[in-house]
Design a protein that fits this description.
Layout: E1 2-6, E2 21-25, E3 36-39, E4 44-47, E5 55-56, E6 58-60, E7 64-71, E8 80-81, E9 89-90, E10 98-108, E11 111-114, E12 118-123, E13 126-133, E14 136-145, E15 149-151, E16 164-168, E17 183-184, E18 189-191, E19 196-202
Length: about 200
């Protein structure tokens, strides 16, 4: 690119001396303006496998392009460019529990503006677990995260002459003798993957 630089000298008729115009190769002038982001992306919290809302930016400027990035920390350092995330909107995944951070770089030529960094939190689903013995609720565990192991409660006193053989989730009845046992022992550790009611099985 060339920039015209001139000195203004006066002649008797106060005209411009054109011989004083000099061309300098390599001089530069601003070739773009940083885009303006008027609407920033908004973070959100989801349960695993929820349908997420797209992150979005609204920007103004000439010939805008977009690129979204993700990170495991609230920073642009070490961020990863998301393949094919080159629109003003990007829909994050909710298939894995955890927290990720996202931002968008909006570019106009060689000039660019970085959006705010926002977090998308994905939680494992939670369930309610009810423990019953002889028709009575012994304990209720609320907000148990999916995949968590819960230990069955200790039953005391035990009906005379009986012992706890294990626990089942198939039958609700008094004493539940002879019912098929899913988890053996008085206080087994049981993985929770849904809302459940467990019943003590006596032998």
């Amino acid at each position: 690119k060339f920039t015209i630089v001139y000195t203004h000298t006066q002649s008797k008729n106060y005209g411009l001396d054109l011989t004083s115009i000099v061309f300098y190769e390599g001089s530069t002038t601003p070739s773009c303006t940083n885009p303006t982001i008027s609407t920033q992306p908004t973070g959100a919290t989801y349960t695993k496998d929820d349908s997420p809302t797209a992150l979005s930016v609204v920007a103004s400027g000439d010939d805008l392009t977009y690129q979204w990035y993700s990170n495991t920390s609230n920073s642009t350092n070490g961020a990863t460019k998301i393949n094919d995330a080159t629109n003003s909107t990007y829909t994050p995944s909710t298939s894995t529990a955890g927290t990720k951070y996202y931002y968008c770089i909006v570019s106009s030529g060689s000039c660019s503006t970085t959006s705010n960094i926002v977090s998308v939190v994905v939680n494992n689903p939670t369930y309610t677990v009810i423990w019953k013995s002889n028709g009575e609720v012994i304990r209720t565990d609320n907000n148990v995260e999916s995949g968590t192991n819960k230990t069955a409660p200790t039953i005391s006193p035990i009906p005379c002459g009986d012992v706890i053989a294990g626990w089942t989730d198939a039958t609700d009845g008094n004493y539940v003798h002879g019912t098929s046992i899913l988890y053996s022992g008085a206080t087994p550790s049981i993985p929770i993957t849904s809302d459940k009611t467990f019943y003590a099985v006596f032998a």
